[in-house]
């Protein structure tokens, strides 16, 4: 059951993802806001994510025959009603007492897939029970393979359709916003799926690096990805790839999809924008596996631009927390419905009848658009 005690109505005037963000900032405690909105260090990558989308122009096309138009598509062999997924987002009870169950109810009503974080504040089984949509389990690999495998087996048993292994955060980003706000998880929010699991700790002596002496001791490496691929028949997607070299390596491990992601600018600041990284990775991957993009997607036109640059689908992260904070499950379904409606309008106005008809021809003047560093 979803906790129904939090906000559950869309306030008047909320008609875009930006509106949700502004309302969420006004109602959330300052320290929770610092965690949810906090970028790495100076927030440059997060800003570039938006600037890159904003700098790309679309080539409008008129009078196209839109008979049988639709946003339905496929990802990893599975049908989806639109190419927009709920990204894995930790600690959702920070935003709303219903947490991940509220999100999955909203995602199900909007017919959108949802990725469930290893660091969810609800058990992965409870989320699956409330779900009527396709679920992907986001895996942070744990200190031992045995413990990692226990999470994989739970996800399989609960009916998750794929694994998404996040590989870009073996250590936390430099989260200055969180540090300034003194953010700590409140007692009612816990990462219940990994409670009691061993975590890496520093064994650094005076003047030694805690990162290199302890915190990275059990961090996953490519051999762990090769190992994981052998352990499950579920499709495996790697999340957090921005380098074409890493994309090639991921392919050699047999992954089924790649999420091109800079973690919304929350890990290594000054990584390239998500769309720049996508262009580089797509050039290397050349369609051998589907690419999913996240980082800065806030409009249907952003979805269209990402698809034109080689993505098969996109994910939204922070907007999930914004919508959840403002209106719980109703906010989630509304936020996803806004994106769907905006995507439909953008497809209609660029003459794209189906998702697979979206290509770089809809970009003006081609994909070397202003806003993308060459
Ligand atoms: C509050 C918050 C928590 C997040 N937690 C996770 C997580 O547990 N696992 C993960 O792989 N990514 C996590 N992310 C990153 C998102 O999955 C996604 O990569 C990012 O938010 C996309 O950028 P956007 O927020 O601009 O849409 C988190 C993002 C936010 C905002
Ligand atoms: C050591 C990495 C912790 C990441 C915590 C959750 C997450 O991905 C995020 O906040 O972003």
From TrEMBL:
Q: Does the keyword Oxidoreductase apply?
A: yes
Transmembrane segment boundaries: none
Start and end residues of each FMN hydroxy acid dehydrogenase domain: 9-368
Q: Which SUPFAM superfamilies match?
A: FMN-linked oxidoreductases
UniProt-listed InterPro entries: Aldolase_TIM, Alpha-hydoxy_acid_DH_FMN, FMN-dep_DH, FMN_HAD
Query: Is Cell membrane among this UniProt entry's keywords?
Result: no
Q: Which UniProt keywords apply?
A: Flavoprotein, FMN, Oxidoreductase
Q: What is its EC number?
A: 1.-.-.-
Single GO MF descriptor: oxidoreductase activity
Cofactor list: FMN
- Write out the similarity annotation: Belongs to the FMN-dependent alpha-hydroxy acid dehydrogenase family.
**Name the UniProt record assigns to this protein:** Alpha-hydroxy acid oxidase
């Amino acid at each position: 059951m979803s906790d129904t005690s939090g906000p559950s109505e869309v306030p008047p005037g909320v008609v875009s993802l930006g509106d949700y963000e502004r309302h969420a900032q006004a109602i959330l405690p300052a320290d929770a806001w610092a965690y949810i909105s906090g970028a790495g260090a100076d927030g440059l990558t997060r800003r570039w994510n938006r600037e890159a989308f904003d700098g790309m122009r679309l080539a409008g096309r008129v009078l196209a025959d839109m008979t049988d138009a639709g946003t339905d598509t496929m990802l990893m062999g599975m049908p989806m009603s639109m190419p927009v997924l709920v990204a894995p987002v930790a600690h959702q009870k920070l935003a709303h007492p219903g947490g991940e169950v509220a999100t999955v109810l909203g995602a199900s009503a909007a017919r959108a897939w949802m990725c469930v974080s290893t660091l969810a504040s609800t058990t992965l089984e409870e989320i699956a029970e409330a779900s009527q949509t396709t679920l992907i389990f986001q895996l942070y690999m744990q200190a031992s393979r045995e413990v990692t495998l226990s999470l994989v087996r739970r996800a399989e048993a609960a009916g998750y359709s794929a694994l998404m292994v996040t590989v870009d955060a073996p250590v936390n980003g430099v989260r200055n916003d969180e540090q300034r706000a003194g953010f700590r998880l409140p007692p009612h929010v816990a990462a219940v799926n990994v409670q009691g699991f061993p975590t890496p700790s520093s064994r650094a002596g005076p003047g030694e690096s805690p990162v290199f002496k302890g915190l990275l001791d059990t961090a996953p490496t490519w051999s762990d990805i090769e190992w994981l691929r052998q352990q499950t028949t579920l499709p495996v997607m790697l999340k957090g790839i921005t380098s074409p070299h890493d994309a090639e390596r991921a392919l050699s491990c047999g992954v089924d999809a790649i999420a091109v992601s800079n973690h919304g600018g929350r890990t290594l600041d000054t990584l390239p924008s998500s769309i720049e990284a996508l262009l580089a990775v797509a050039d290397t991957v050349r369609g051998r596996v589907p690419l999913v993009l996240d980082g800065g997607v806030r409009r249907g036109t952003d979805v269209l631009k990402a698809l034109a640059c080689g993505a098969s689908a996109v994910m939204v992260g922070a907007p999930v927390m914004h919508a959840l904070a403002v209106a719980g499950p109703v906010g989630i379904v509304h936020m996803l419905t806004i994106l769907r409606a905006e995507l439909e309008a953008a497809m209609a106005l660029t003459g794209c009848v189906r998702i697979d008809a979206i290509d770089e021809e809809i970009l003006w003047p081609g994909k070397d658009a202003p806003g993308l560093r060459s």
